[in-house]
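thought: fold this chain, then report.
action: predict
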Amino acid sequence: MWKRLIYCLIIIAGVLFFSAIGLDRWISWKTAPYIYEDIQQLPHRQVGVVLGTAKYYRTGVINEYYLYRIQGALNVYNSGKASYLLLSGDNALQSYNEPVTMRRDLIAHGMPAGDIVLDYAGFRTLDSIIRTRKVFDTNDFTIITQRFHCERALFIAMHMGIQAQCYAVPSPKNMFTVRLREVAARLAMLSDLYIMKREPRFLGPQVSIPIRYEVPQGTQGYPAVSPDQLLEIQPKIDTDQQDLLQDMR
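observation:
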């Protein structure tokens, strides 16, 4: 009896495993036509959306995923492939602000501040993609991130009827654990889209791009979501859990 039970459990585990791998490959295949790695072949779009991640790991080591995304964003802008960059990331804690960090580094590399727009409520990939459409009134844009992340972001866009494309920037060499976590992230994404039918945690008023924002010195750019508001809509994430998610966002 026990042998039969163990045998059945092994079969079920195998079916679930191969189903997860099959869904992962299906998402990659479905989004492949909209991913570009050669900047010269990338069609022009008015807006490039840079998906955020932490600049440093807890150990203080620089995050290469972040470096490649910033360089990719500069390449897209400097090559004339986008007129504006929308920096979408997490700002849930006062000490952790992905959009502002990206903005600071882009300006330090010579990008005009007037061509940068900040999205402080890009908590997840789903939030970033849907908010670009619903809050920033942009339905045809270029996503800038690593290829595995491109595939998940584009699948969300396609499901929502958004005409996005993606510029895939390089990934660090050691990606095995990140790629395994990506399989789990894609299963969670499918649940969000088809079962839970989730929306972004925060939308707010619509503001179209392109537009020049006159921002008083020392204040956040529009659409401004105060740290207090963010803390109300998103519980504080445990530090260790946040480190686990940073590479997958």
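thought: worth noting. Helices lie at 2-31, 64-78, 98-108, 125-134, 147-159, 176-196, 227-233, 239-246.
final: tokens above.
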